[in-house]
Write a structure and sequence with these properties.
Helices cover 46% and strands 12% of the residues. It is of the alpha/beta class and 390 residues long. The chain folds into 3 domains: 99 residues, no CATH class; 206 residues, Rossmann fold (3-Layer(aba) Sandwich), CATH 3.40.50; 31 residues, no CATH class. The longest helix is centred in the N-terminal third of the chain and has 30 residues.
């Protein structure tokens, strides 16, 4: 419950701070937006009370569907209220961004679109595009609120792809997704409400197709992202604009068994798209460490039955974390939860979740790029198969 409510509390503090940090001439120039925000705030408060009144009487936060739906609606209303208080000039711009001179590339009809992962940016996953770019493919990336509901990000991608395919019908698209970006892409191409026939292939690197246990620990990471990003701190409303990225909805969507994952995984794969999944098993935790940790918890709490009851959930969580175990996951996504029914082109490579982006000289990272390029170059001249994956 704490992890789900912290983003809301932070957003409330941000909005309060914004309404009290206006001084002198700034007050007159921003007075009207603040008045509108306070009016929206009152309306939001009333909707919040209405939502809480509909929550089940037992208030079982762990299992109460009504609570989860109410909290999701509260977050959506709160985001609209706060983002409305940010001056338009300081709001982020989201959508498809093609690289400069992309139409002049040798193989510009093959367009590779990068979709980054959770709490990230295209720049942080850019290393995956270097080989396709060197091979002469046109490249671009989706910029999207990286912590909003994944279905919303998928809708944004579907909209951008439709516009692109209408204006460039002679091009075919390869989606190159890293981590949560794979879920965003699947939300765009597998939802029957969207029509993106221009997408020919989806290559997913470390996708949490069935979630990740670590998403339960993703509390406050969006704040961390902004506090340690100089470019974002230079914006006039850095904390308020952090709310624009989302209020931990994406992290909730990636919890194993979440309503979002259940709905999406019931859908069939898109028959017009060729799927590839590249999974890592280079997790940092030895196979015996998880069991040793559970034994230590049992010994630590000893005969104290009440304390032991509190320790059991933590022990179970440790045992569930195949994501971090060497040979079973890459440190964030497990091989089991990354696999997907209907995708035969699935490879397991000994890489870890972050090094595959940051340490491109590692043999495992080079192998990942080689496998990516093999798929992208399937419709290109054979000479590209030997492209250097550096």
């Amino acid at each position: 419950m704490i992890g789900r409510c912290c983003p809301i509390l932070l957003a409330i503090v941000c909005l309060w701070k914004n309404s009290h940090d206006v001084h002198g001439d700034q007050r007159s120039s921003l007075q009207q937006p603040i008045v509108r925000t306070e009016t929206s705030w009152a309306a939001w408060g009333q909707r919040t009370l209405d939502s809480w009144s509909n929550v089940c009487p037992s208030f079982d936060v762990g299992s109460c569907v009504a609570w989860r739906r109410a909290l999701r609606q509260i977050k959506a209303d709160l985001r609209r209220c706060i983002v409305g208080s940010v001056p338009p000039a300081d709001r982020a711009s989201f959508g498809l961004r093609m690289e400069q001179n992309w139409e002049a590339q040798q193989h510009a009809t093959t367009v590779v679109i990068l979709v980054h992962g959770f709490n990230s940016t295209p720049a942080e996953a850019e290393s995956l595009l270097r080989v396709p770019r060197q091979a002469g493919c046109a490249c671009g990336a989706l910029v999207y609120p990286n912590d909003q509901p994944i279905v919303d990000s998928g809708g944004l991608l579907a909209k951008e792809l439709k516009i692109f395919s209408q204006t460039h019908p002679e091009h075919h698209i390869v989606l190159l997704a890293y981590s949560m970006g794979g879920l965003v892409c699947r939300a765009a191409i597998e939802d029957p409400c969207f029509d993106n026939r221009a997408v020919r292939r989806l290559v997913m690197v470390a996708p949490p197709n069935h979630g990740t246990s670590l998403s339960r620990l993703a509390c406050g990471v969006d704040v961390y992202e902004y506090l340690f990003s100089p470019s974002r701190l230079r914006r006039s409303h850095p904390l308020l604009t952090s709310v624009e990225d989302g209020l931990a909805e994406a992290a909730e969507d990636m919890v194993p068994g979440s309503p979002f994952l259940q709905t999406m995984n019931r859908r069939p794969r898109n028959p017009l798209v060729q799927y590839t999944i590249l999974l890592g098993n280079g997790g940092p935790v030895g196979p015996n460490l998880a069991k040793s940790t559970c034994r230590w918890l049992d010994q630590f709490f000893g005969a104290d039955s009440d304390a032991h009851d509190h320790a059991e959930p933590w022990a179970s969580l440790v045992l569930e974390m195949d994501e971090c175990t060497t040979g079973m996951g890459d440190g964030v996504v497990s091989v089991e939860r990354g696999s997907l029914d209907g995708v035969d082109d699935t490879l397991v490579i000994e890489f870890d979740h972050l090094s595959v982006l940051r340490n491109t000289d590692l043999p495992s990272s080079r192998r990942v790029r080689q496998e990516i390029m093999k798929r992208i170059s399937a419709d290109l001249p054979d000479k590209l198969l030997s492209a250097d994956a550096s």
